[in-house]
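Quick start: read one record
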Amino acid sequence: MDPRVLLKAAGFLFLLTVGVPGNVYILVQFICLKIIDKKLLPANVILMVLALANLLVLFSRVLPQCLEAIGVRNLLNNTECMLIIYTYRVSRAMCIAITSLLSCHQCIVIAPNSAVWSFLKQNVSQNTSIIIFTIWLIILIMYPYSMSIARAKGNFTTSPFTLHVVYCDIDFLNYFSYILNGAFMASRDFIFVGLMTLASGYILYILFNHEKTVREIRSSDRKKRNSVEYKASRAVILLVALYVVLFGLDNSMWIYTLTMSNVSPDMNDARIMLACSYSALSPLVIIATNQKLQQRIKCKQKHRANFWISQNSSVSDLPP
């Protein structure tokens, strides 16, 4: 097998084996918390939706890439190509929108209690589900066009302005449509990245001031509450930093491809791997930094340790 093909297959398989279990774990744990506690914090609702969007990205883009790399050919027909391309574009847009919402929400949570911030804290926290549903609905309405230009690969001529994506071709037909699509996607990403960068910058500013004044706070309850909020803020900053780095590289490559009439398959594969890496790697950051998930992990570890001790005690108590 060609070393490049082998490397591509290994890369996409790695994203699947890391991303799918991680996102499924987050979804299952938050659903269990919802059933047990009867409620979820707004930030955890946002993380649950992010995990769902991540799974859709992995199944609609990484899985086909992995199957194609290991030799599976002609897997999709025209209808399936339209559905896969549409699902990928919607879920990718949801990933960036939800990450931006998460950073803005955390910025609002730790902001000082002024009239404006108090109003935002109350309304955003109470209407998180409505905000998420509205974002999802807007994105669903925005991308039907991508279905009309996607079709399965076959023995027919495509224009020079075609993206060759695994089993499908996305033919923009002319240079104007090709540039317009690229400019739209890049602008959307830069707007959301700008929002999350501003929110993260303000969070860092609040954290810096908090570190300077934390010794002056006398209330232990206030310290405990602040500790939780600021730990969550650091986790959000890590998530945003991961997104900015990976999607920044992806969009840099995308802008470069706008200057080319025929994009090489290797360039497309590299872009897709970068674009999907966030969906695979972000669960690791969430699991490692989310307080609720960490508490459940510790409880399970403690339960297993107690069970192991009780089993050994039972064995040692048996008569010789």
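Residues 106 and 233 are 6 Å apart (CA to CA).
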